[in-house]
Amino acid sequence: MFAENENIVLTARKRAETATITVQPLRGNLNALIGSGGNIALLIGKDGKLIIDSGYSTSRPRITDALTKLSPDPIRHLINTHWHFDHTDGNEWMHSEGAAILAHENTKKHLSTTTRVDGWDFTFPPSPAGAIPAEVFDKEKTLHLNDSTIALSYYGPSHTDGDVSAYFVEADVLHCGDTWWNGHYPFIDYSTGGNIKGMIGAAEKNLAGVSEKTIVIPGHGKIGGKPELTEYRDMLAAIHDRVAALKKDGKSLEETIATKPTAAYDAKWATTFITGAVFTKLVYAGA
Ligand SMILES: [Zn+2]
């Protein structure tokens, strides 16, 4: 799908070896770590560090550096928003330092077996035992740690079939995982149960759960809030409607791409390996 000289997964891991990790304080004892794969959330306190998503393993020294500067407490809890490598590569080392890993049951399933992602032209081997979530949940789970309530909720099939959100209730901060890419067309992983209609549904769920004051952490892109989430949902829905109409008219994928259904959006959203044509293909597959 992606005309790259080197495979996108290998390139991403290599790039992470030198990527800078930026700490962005959010509210209270909650911070974001930006720069290693998916955006990481970090809650500090007497119960030890709680982390949402573990980034690339190649970022370990820089993530460790950032974590140590913030507090000396050990990592006790790690939650994966979904199974993708840019959110779980660091699972093994974080577990080795004491983190219990929690995720949706489908995330455990994909990490436990050989898993092919056609959109990346890559086959992942089963993860090492220490990287696999020891605890899983199906629909909802609530944690009480570091004087915070952390409400985890399953989206249903959207970006993959194992996406969950993490809402820090008192701080009013929502981590959406890869159901939201702020300022980028999203990848949708059809190989492990994702689809465009589920992505739009997840965007609706995100919007319904936030107020104007909520800080929202996307899986990728800058931290934002309701206005940016709204613009993203509108973009997904508009492109889906256009592509679905063309598909209903009997247009092939090639014919649909040729009409450039994303043209009005490309300047703002075609900012990664997901070009307008690639995103059209991802939408067409599920329209
Ligand atoms: Zn992902």
Fold and architecture overview:
The chain is α/β, with parallel strands linked by helices and 287 residues long. Helices cover 33% and strands 22% of the residues. The chain has helices at 8-16, 60-70, 85-88, 91-96, 105-112, 196-208, 226-248, 253-258, 266-269, 276-286; strands at residues 22-25, 30-34, 40-43, 49-52, 75-79, 100-104, 115-117, 122-124, 135-137, 140-145, 148-154, 164-168, 173-175, 181-182, 215-217, 220-221. Helix 6 (196-208) packs antiparallel against helix 7. The chain starts with 7 loop residues before the first helix and ends with a helix. The protein binds zinc ion (ZN).
User: Gap between N and C termini, in Å?
Assistant: 18 Å
Give me the number of helical elements: 10
Shape: globular
Largest sheet: 7 strands, mixed
Q: Give the SSE order as H and E letters.
A: HEEEEHEHHEHEEEEEEEEHEEHHHH
Task: Give the neighbour order of strands across the main sheet.
Answer: 1-2-3-4-5-6-9
What portion of the residues fall into strands of 2 or more residues? 15-25%
Uncertain runs = none
What are the bound molecules? Answer: zinc ion
State the share of residues found in helices, binned by percent. Answer: 25-40%
Average pLDDT figure? 96
Question: Got a strand count?
Answer: 16
Query: Radius of gyration in whole Å, from Cα?
Result: 18 Å
Outline of the structure:
The chain has a 7-stranded mixed beta sheet. Strands 10-11-12-13-15 form a 5-stranded mixed beta sheet, with no helix packed on it. Strands 7-8 form a two-stranded antiparallel sheet.
